[in-house]
């Protein structure tokens, strides 16, 4: 069951909202939380009920550890136990096969199936364990009891792919006395934000995904892409992952708002960032906040000497890469971003800020190039795509350009654009070009819709509604969200 499927929109969501507000009106807020937990477990189990006991066991175990932290004279020891246990479970399911293959390539794989959302609900509970040991707002939030804690972890809007919200942000909202009372403002705002995400996913992300899949799929099957083909595929993927994940985040924010819970913003026009540090303050904001608070700052952060700061940045981003997936291509992606951040930190020490447009252009180019290992099926495919981007496989012009400019015919070889393996046809150069131009105009020129005026935002979301409805109910195939694999 996916947020953008008819089953969710027409079935699960209306039943969940109706049951939540009805139980709240009849039996009170605590039973309404119980309904929300049950609905979230049904949502999670719809994918594969085998892993529902894992999620429940994780919640029960971590809640018990948090209780021990609160009551024990040695909270740090219990914190270490909790963090170690969570990382061990995550490591077994997500990295055991990767480590085995890296150490012993000839060994038979373990074939461990990755449980849905394990990276996200593990990080949520690591935050709870660590924050409770540190004291402060998280410790007070946890004192609310088991039901708010279980609802915080299993809450279906963020359970599968975030945002990665801190317990002190959410648990107090779940303990409000009139949480389960319907509020028309929240319902209408939440619905509009949800529809924005729906339009991003179904109208934009899946369109650019078809272009990217064609190019990267051709490379995975041994084909070589020319300069234009490689750049079209790479630029398409940069748009796909932005619209896909920001669309999911908007849908999650909207769903939570309908249930009277406010999530933090997770994307803030990241491709408009003037430098790489600003990019990470705008892209997957909640993951960046987690990495800063629980990895980078404990390592020493900016307080360390330049060499140590550089090492801290590299370690943090390498771990960010591994968090996304067990593969050397994800390590390469994290390493590239770590290198970018190190270069940026050194540049700031010795040089004045560069012009904003130049900084934005360099940042965007660096980010787009780093998406290549993130998307490629293997490290070999990454190198093959980089060869195409560099023009080492030739710079053959698309057939339409050559035919439109006859003088080029004598010096250029016309080629079809992005040969599609799945459909045995070639994609239209004008259509792909127009879509890419429109997509990049949207991400580079338009403001974040969450920061628009109320009238402009309503008009934008309403316009997107018609497109998203058509895409959801008449599309032949509904593609899953990219971040579900993490």
From TrEMBL:
Domain of life: Bacteria
Primary site of residence: membrane
UniProt subcellular location: Cell membrane
Pathway: Glycan biosynthesis; alginate biosynthesis
Keywords: Acyltransferase, Alginate biosynthesis, Cell membrane, Membrane, Transferase, Transmembrane, Transmembrane helix
Membrane spanning stretches: 35-56, 77-95, 110-130, 313-336, 356-374, 386-409, 429-449, 461-484
An annotated Gene Ontology molecular function: acyltransferase activity
Name of this chain's protein: Probable alginate O-acetylase AlgI
